[in-house]
Write a structure and sequence with these properties.
The chain contains 36 helices and 12 strands. By secondary structure, the chain is an alpha/beta fold. Its EC number is 2.3.2.26.
Length: about 750
């Protein structure tokens, strides 16, 4: 529309049912001349409260072909220079973003992910209008009126399948930069979120693809809008076990909307859909108890397979595929929501999958590692009880010996041999037994395993398997990390045992002292290692290859390297490997150096350790195959689950410690005790944690999540302090002086080994 051709005939624009950018400016100009904005307010109220009106508004004038895009500027003589530049940029951006659909554009048809609304025009209109307070009120009131009608249309009338342009109204409303302001939070935004959450899956996917082209700033604005609504609703209500946050429509709807932004944030970042680990050729052996499980109605649980998010399937992208999102994943976590979430109830809704009950575990991005770990804990415990119940029924039906636990009886000086033989037998005969609760007994010791004996078992197994003299792993002195040794003489069974131990540690909520690079956890989750993973696992090699990629001279003449690589194994033997057939005859040039680097990384991280890693992963999946682990956690969170937090905050531990047997926070001995502990060096603090809890790492969430109890154990004595590592209880006599307390405590934590009955 050319505003110079036709002067406005009416002031009130009563029959105007949709808007264009030019028409808004025309009305704005008319209102400005008369200093009366009521006609514009009425038009906005009418158009923005009507789904049909909003869908028709701010349309792109035409889907241009490539030839038309080139001649667009020449034809647009009425536009000033700035507008022409914007049009050209917008056209170029559209062309670049829709590379996959360029053939459709040439054919005169819009691509499947193209929308008919002119987003840039909408942004310009909002920036002009939102400065006026009265006009903003019109947007607010219109949204309150619009949203219930839109929700009804989507729920009952299947309106999107009839007209895909219906998506336009959501795109237009979401460009309002004031959506997160207090005026919207009470009524307008909750109603709009409920409508947006009713969009069918294809529409959500289309919205994700559109928003993934937005800048990080625009993604952050939308994220903050939904996060603010969730936080506002959580803080302004008293949620508890009787009044569940899962039943709050506004919080649930905002979380579903946040999921769309989360996937857009992921898709807009660096995504690697390839480099997937191949599935194990041999399936994990079926349990011999399948018939009874079917009898008990357990077969659905086992055959269903791991849960997959429907939007993830629709988009063809997984969280693990994203190497670097536009915004850090942490910005999608809502801490106030995590604080009020009743995880036992939420887990029930997650497992039952009813339509009328929402589970926040279906949106794991909003949960922190502590909350997700609690959900995993419930899942593991229920599986343990399920296996126990099946075992009891089997013993009744078939007269088999009752064995409701995964019992391991080991000798301290033969711990690997004993554990390997027992676990291998279980893995071959009945892998389902690995999902029973672990119960460890050290031969010749009286300790009863309520958790503490298992902790020491894991610690000793890890110490032994990662012993450099055994040679299963190489150790990098600079990074302090271990990597699988491709030249190891150990059997695949040993690597399978490592995998089983890692899985059992997660399953039994134990922390291990293992030091793997992140690529190991990515590989466990199904992604192969690539060049960028070398930065973590092989930093010196990464730096060398990076310099090769950035070298400005002639690689072939100056470096004289070929597609045959050589390196020494752990025992000093020279090894060569051809990255391509007859690699020693193929020089690395400026043209093929990227291929060389990719092949080098593929060999180091995947091919050279393929046999060892397959055994390792197989052992891990024996325990975790039916767990929601992959669904809930990212690789860095898996590392936190297995290794715990390296940050030891003893101030937080002091805050959460409880006292028993006559001690209180203000007791003389307790005040002296904390003064001594805070004065310890880092290594002594780790020894103290090891002595009291059975591990020298903090649990997920830090030491503040550790429930430690200090109990009085008699009057002044020469006896040493003792502990129940199963329950994190420290038994502390009431020593007469601070010096004696320090001397006794240091002796106890330094020479502690083994279990006995006191």
């Amino acid at each position: 529309m050319n505003r110079t051709e036709e002067p406005p005939a009416r002031d009130h624009f009563k029959d105007l049912n949709y808007l264009t950018e030019e028409k808004v400016y025309e009305i704005l100009e008319t209102c400005g001349e008369k200093e009366d904005y009521s006609p514009l307010i009425r038009v906005i109220g009418r158009v923005f409260s009507s789904a049909d009106g909003l869908v028709q508004s701010f349309r792109k004038t035409k889907q241009h072909t490539k030839e038309e895009l080139k001649s667009l500027q020449g034809k647009d003589e009425d536009k000033d220079e700035d507008e022409k530049e914007k049009a050209a940029c917008s056209a170029a951006a559209m062309e670049e973003d829709s590379g996959a659909s360029s053939s459709r554009l040439e054919a005169g048809k819009p691509g499947p992910d193209e929308v008919s609304v002119d987003v840039e025009a909408v942004r310009r209109v909002y920036s002009k209008l939102l400065a006026n307070e009265k006009i903003e009120t019109a947007f607010l009131n219109a949204l309150v009126y619009l949203s219930p009608n839109v929700e009804c249309d989507l729920t009952y009338h299947n309106v999107y399948s009839r007209d895909p342009n219906y998506l336009n109204l959501f795109i237009i409303v979401m460009e309002n930069s004031n959506l997160h302001s207090p005026e919207y939070l009470e009524i307008a935004l909750p109603l709009f979120c409920k409508a947006l959450s009713k969009l069918p899956l294809p529409a959500q996917a289309k919205l994700v693809r559109l928003w993934s082209r937005y800048s990080a700033g625009q993604i952050r604005r939308m994220t903050e809008t939904f996060q603010q609504l969730i936080t506002y609703k959580v803080i302004s209500n008293e949620f508890n076990s009787r009044n569940l946050v899962n039943d709050d429509d506004a919080v649930v709807a905002a979380t579903k909307c946040l999921k769309i932004v989360y996937y857009a944030n992921m898709l807009g970042g660096e995504v690697d859909r390839g480099h997937n680990e191949e599935e194990d050729e041999e399936p994990i052996p079926e349990s011999s108890e399948l018939t009874l499980q079917e009898l008990l109605g357990e077969e659905r649980r086992n055959k269903k397979g791991p849960r997959v998010d429907p939007l993830e399937t629709e988009l063809g992208v997984k969280t693990i595929d994203c190497r670097k999102p536009l915004l850090p994943f942490e910005e999608f976590v809502n801490e106030p929501l995590n604080d009020v979430l009743e995880m036992d109830k939420d887990y029930t809704f997650f497992k039952v999958e009813t339509e009328n009950k929402f589970s926040f575990m279906t949106c794991p991005f909003i949960l922190n590692a502590v909350t997700k770990n609690l959900g995993l804990y419930y899942d593991n415990r229920i599986r343990m009880y399920s296996e126990r119940r099946i075992t009891v029924l089997y013993s009744l039906v078939q007269g088999q010996q009752l064995n409701p636990y995964l019992r391991l009886k080991v000798r301290r000086d033969h711990i690997i041999d004993d554990a390997l033989v027992r676990l291998e037998m279980i893995a071959m005969e009945n892998p389902a037994d690995l999902k029973k609760q672990l119960y460890v007994e050290f031969e010749g010791e009286q300790g009863v395993d309520e958790g503490g004996v298992s902790k020491e078992f894991f610690q000793l197994v890890v110490e032994e398997l990662f012993n450099r003299d055994i040679g299963m792993f190489t150790y990098d002195e600079t990074t302090k990390l271990c990597w699988l040794n491709p030249s190891s003489f150990e059997t695949e069974g040993q690597f399978t045992l490592i995998g089983i131990v890692l899985g059992l540690a997660i399953y039994n909520n134990c922390i291990l002292d293992v030091h793997f690079p992140m690529v190991v956890y990515r590989k466990l989750m199904g992604k192969k290692g690539t060049f960028r993973d070398l930065a973590d696992s092989h930093p010196v090699l990464f730096q060398s290859l990076n310099e090769l990629l950035e070298y400005e001279g002639s690689v072939e003449d100056d470096m004289m390297i070929t597609f045959q690589i050589s390196h020494t194994d752990l025992f000093g033997n020279p090894l060569t490997y051809d990255l391509r057939e007859n690699g020693d005859k193929i020089p690395v040039t400026n043209e093929n150096r990227k291929e060389f680097v990719a092949q080098y990384a593929e060999y180091m991280l995947n091919k050279s350790v393929e046999k060892q890693f397959k055994a390792f992963r197989r052992g891990f999946h024996m325990v975790t195959s039916e767990s929601p682990l992959k669904y809930l956690f990212r690789p860095e969170e898996i590392e936190l689950l297995i290794c715990g937090s390296r940050n030891l905050d003893f101030e937080a531990l002091e805050e959460t410690t409880e006292y028993d047997g006559g001690y209180t926070r203000d007791s003389r001995v307790i005040r002296s005790f904390w003064e001594i502990v805070h004065s310890f060096a880092e290594e002594q603090k780790r020894l103290f944690l090891q002595f009291t809890t059975g591990t020298d790492r903090a649990p997920v969430g830090g030491l503040g999540k550790l429930k430690m109890i200090i109990a009085k154990n008699g009057q002044d004595t020469d006896r040493l302090p003792t502990s129940h590592t199963c329950f994190n209880v420290l038994l502390l006599p009431e020593y007469s002086t601070q010096e004696k307390l320090k001397e006794r405590l240091l002796k106890a934590i330094t020479y502690a080994k083994g279990f006995g009955m006191l």
